[in-house]
């Protein structure tokens, strides 16, 4: 139980605020981040029942600008399989940065802003641990006439939970205007805030991008509401797992293809046929022939968490798969996990066995998400 | 009369006669966060001092518990199966892990008393 290594870690604009709120700071993707304040389970339940504020400023905010939407979107489509040309103003889409083998370099969200004078602008949010790597790929592969700007010092926070809309409606009218996966600019108490109806908890909620200088004011304003408490990385992890959402570097990586990972929705329907993205021929073949391995959602018996790295075995004890994320799901009330298994064993209801410290633990493949998605579509 | 001793790994052993009750300190439960499962040993199992004897799982991670002394497990806390949170709410009370019959009381001399442990945990 050694203390977290805090040297050489970067901080977000909310660092002092986290410490003031009693956050327990740990190193994550090169940043000092709060893993919890009062407790992971309390913060998890707070998010499912009311609202929580998460600091996600460590994630990489990037803006790519070209002469018009089609040019910028087509350029990004040469690296990502999502239908980006088809994005309407104000819409955002989850997609992937792929390599030539069809492996996943990162998962990300692309937003087409709707504001006047933003034609040709696409905003991207990358994972913290991959953002420098991703931008290097963009700079290498995209035509130099496109402008690529990074906003590593900008703040990003996620207000998540069934009360998030009520809370945000006290400061702007966007909760009644934005549908899930839509975004718009607004002003909150004089601060310029870019708001999207999105998140990674399975609940309704918003992500708010704001200048570093305004971050503390905005965070304190939101947490000042009775319905909102700060929440840390621990709750973020158990919430996204119950919500069936993958974590880069665990449930997907540069060796895993989107089909095995269950992320075919990140590939535009037309693009599955037309291709034109890295690894397209590999991925098209997997779509046609079926993946040999698939990510399955598994609920285990008892209470013992089955964590990343646990082997999944057949009746004879032979290794047939591996758990890539797993924890005790506070809302489910049972251990839940994602694991890669042979495709025929990824079918709902299949009974699987994982080994934890030499002991077999029985589980069943369940439909994802484990908890119902509460996204709001207006 | 009971005498509580502590290991460097933040376990306590509350000694009464020849039996010790083992759990983790308040400092340790606070560091671990919400405990969701405790993998306790079998009654009758024998362990040498320093052997891995139990595992405590928080939402965040699994942590091994080492036998503070050599001996034989005489009881385990059955309540933890349904209420692992007792480790957080009452680490030195209802949140105990197991009882051990101590082979050699001399091994207790190598463990910290309350004052020495406080200094260790604060360090």
UniProtKB/TrEMBL annotation, chain A:
- Which Pfam families does this entry report, sorted A to Z? GCV_T, GCV_T_C
Keywords from the UniProt entry: Aminotransferase, Transferase
Does Transferase show up as a keyword for this record?
A: yes
Return the EC number.
2.1.2.10
**Catalytic reaction equation(s):** N(6)-[(R)-S(8)-aminomethyldihydrolipoyl]-L-lysyl-[protein] + (6S)-5,6,7,8-tetrahydrofolate = N(6)-[(R)-dihydrolipoyl]-L-lysyl-[protein] + (6R)-5,10-methylene-5,6,7,8-tetrahydrofolate + NH4(+)
- List the InterPro entries hit by this protein, alphabetically: GcvT, GcvT/YgfZ/DmdA, GcvT/YgfZ_C, GcvT_C, GCVT_N, TrmE/GcvT-like
Aminomethyltransferase C-terminal domain mapped to chain residues = 295-370
So which domain of life are we looking at? Bacteria
Residues in domain GCVT N-terminal?
15-268
Please name the NCBIfam families in this protein's record: gcvT, PRK00389.1, PRK13579.1
Q: What family does the Swiss-Prot or TrEMBL record give for this protein?
A: Belongs to the GcvT family.
* Name the UniProt record assigns to this protein: aminomethyltransferase
| Originating species | Maritalea porphyrae
Query: Gene encoding this chain?
Result: gcvT2
From TrEMBL, chain B:
The alphabetized UniProt keywords are:
Lipoyl
The protein's matches in HAMAP family, at most eight in alphabetical order, are given as:
GcvH
Q: Which cofactor does it need?
A: (R)-lipoate
Q: Does the keyword Transcription apply?
A: no
What is said about its interaction partners and assembly? The glycine cleavage system is composed of four proteins: P, T, L and H.
Give start and end of each Lipoyl-binding domain: 19-101
Q: Which InterPro entries match?
A: 2-oxoA_DH_lipoyl-BS, Biotin_lipoyl, GCV_H, GCV_H/Fam206, GCV_H_sub, Single_hybrid_motif
State what protein this is by name. Answer: Glycine cleavage system H protein
Which free-text remark accompanies the cofactor?
Binds 1 lipoyl cofactor covalently.
Superkingdom per UniProt: Bacteria
Write out the function statement from the record. Answer: The glycine cleavage system catalyzes the degradation of glycine. The H protein shuttles the methylamine group of glycine from the P protein to the T protein.
What CDD domains does the database record attribute to this sequence? GCS_H
Q: Which family does it belong to?
A: Belongs to the GcvH family.
Organism, scientific name:
Maritalea porphyrae
**PTM annotation (N6-lipoyllysine): residues:** 60
